[in-house]
Amino acid sequence: MLKLVLTGIWVCAVTLGSVYFSMQYASAPVISEAEAARRASEEYVPGEIITVPVIKDGAVQGYFLAKLSFSATREGIADLHAPLRQLVTDELYDMLLGSKLIDVADTRSFDLPSFKGAVKDGLNKKLGSEVITEVLVEQLEYLTKDDVQRVANSQNMPHQKPVPIVDRNGKVAADRIPEGAVKADGGAH
């Protein structure tokens, strides 16, 4: 019994010692004062999901879905005449639909860093100063018109055969078999 108590005390002492020393040697990442001041002066602004139709040859070819969030200066946000989220959404529509910033249908030529830079520069130009400090991409998708129709028609879900209802004795309840289902004996209903 004494060995068991001493073993328990030893295990507790080793555990507490290892926790103490690991906490002493663990340190938070070192951030410069300039970086800390910059982070303190910025605010995270969550974006909204926007859907931009891709129109080619007078017809809708697909849809570009985007959800972008932003880091912005607190001073810049305070000086705005309208909420930042609505200004950003409006400018994104202008950039993506009005000025054809990118060809979203051509995914091979899409360059994410240049897209983020163009969005940041365009937003800061519209806002009149360096309000946006960073563009954060949460979602970018391109859906063709066929993709949207397939989802709308639920064609993306695999078709399953109906399962007949079987009682405790293993007999199929014939009055509950859906039309076109296969009976347990292999015959069609």
**Element order: H for helix, E for strand:** HHEEEHHHEH
Instruction: Tell me the major beta sheet.
Output: 4 strands, antiparallel
Q: Using DSSP, what is the number of strands?
A: 4
What structural category do the secondary elements indicate?
A: alpha+beta
Descriptive tags:
189 residues; 6 helices; 21% strand; Tetrahydropterin Synthase, Chain A; alpha+beta; 4-stranded antiparallel β-sheet
Could you give a short description of this structure?
The chain is α+β, with helices and mostly antiparallel strands. 40% of the residues lie in helices and 21% in strands. Strands 1, 2, 3 and 4 form a four-stranded antiparallel sheet that branches.
How would you describe the overall organization of this protein?
The structure is a single chain. With 189 residues, the protein is α+β, with helices and mostly antiparallel strands. The chain has a domain at 40-151: 2-Layer Sandwich (Tetrahydropterin Synthase, Chain A), CATH 3.30.479. The protein is built from 6 helices and 4 strands. Strands 1, 2, 3 and 4 form a 4-stranded antiparallel beta sheet that branches. α4 crosses α5. The model has no long low-confidence stretch (mean pLDDT 77).
